[in-house]
Amino acid sequence: xxxxxxxxxxxxxxxxxxxxxxxxxxxxxxxxxxxxxxxxxxxxxxxxxxxxxxxxxxxxxxxxxxxxxxxxxxxxxxxxxxxxxxxxxxxxxxxxxxxxxxxxxxxxxxxxxxxxxxxxxxxxxxxxxxxxxxxxxxxxxxxxxxxxxxxxxxxxxxxxxxxxxxxxxxxxxxxxxxxxxxxxxxxxxxxx
Length: 192
Prior knowledge:
alpha+beta, 6 helices
C-alpha cells in the first residue's frame, strides 16, 4: 500500500474540518457571543496504529476506508457539559458533511468511565481526480473530560492496552468525580 497516497484525503479532511470548526468559534467571538467551542484539535491515525488494527481485527487493506471510521479524527472541546449538546446541534445543522452515526458516551459512560459524544461523518473531499467521500470521527467533550481521556489513554498505552485492575478502578472513580465536577460547574454557571 502506498501510505503517502492513502493519507492525502484524510489529512485534507482533518485540515478542512479544523478550519471550519475554528471558524465557527471565531464567528461567535466576532458577534460578541460566548462560543460553545473552547478549542478544536485533529489528527490522522498513525500508520503503526492502523497496521496494528489490521492485524488485531483481521481487516482487509482494500476496505480500510470503510472499516476504520476514525482514521481522520477531530475533537471539539467545550467548557460546560450542556455546550456539548449545543455543538452537536450545530453539527447536525451543517450541510457540508453527512452524519452517519452518533454515540452519546456523555450521559452513557463506557464502563471505564470514558465520556464523550461521538459522531461518524462522511465528508466530501475535493481531490484533483474528483470528489472522494471520507469517513471521519468527531468527538465532542468538555476540557475536563479531555484531560481524563488523555491520561487514561497514556496509562493504557504504557501498560500495553490492558490496565491493571487497580489502576482501571481508580481511573473509573476519578472519571465519576470528574463528571461530578463538570456538572457542578454547569450548575454554578446556570445560577448566575
